Amino acid sequence: xxxxxxxxxxxxxxxxxxxxxxxxxxxxxxxxxxxxxxxxxxxxxxxxxxxxxxxxxxxxxxxxxxxxxxxxxxxxxxxxxxxxxxxxxxxxxxxxxxxxxxxxxxxxxxxxxxxxxxxxxxxxxxxxxxxxxxxxxxxxxxxxxxxxx
Length: 149
What we know:
Elements: E1 2-11, E2 16-25, E3 31-42, H1 44-59, E4 68-73, H2 76-91, H3 105-116, E5 120-124, H4 132-147
Parallel strand pairs: 1-4, 4-5
Antiparallel strand pairs: 1-2, 2-3
């Protein structure tokens, strides 16, 4: 089973009320699962990470485990963070190249843990560019934010 996961997160103000969403799709972009959540005072980056974490936590309950999962995110922070930056952060005891503590370390550590348990490929997609499942996540994120205003 090959799955696609689309995620999005955002805030109204940064920090401010935030929302996240994910869509898990199978063959032919058939939606298998979707979910959103919100927090009253957070940041865009925490919501972007939260969306991916929530999706991977949901996937960890699938049986059998999917043979391949492609995670689509419009956040270069998430995509580059998990595929490039995290390796040096871990080597440097969760410090950046400038020796500062990594922001959102708690979420990065959880994402790292979940990523190692699933066969993942990471793909950046341009936001607001007409991709139907990315647009679905964006709308759900906006609905999540509106739910707590």
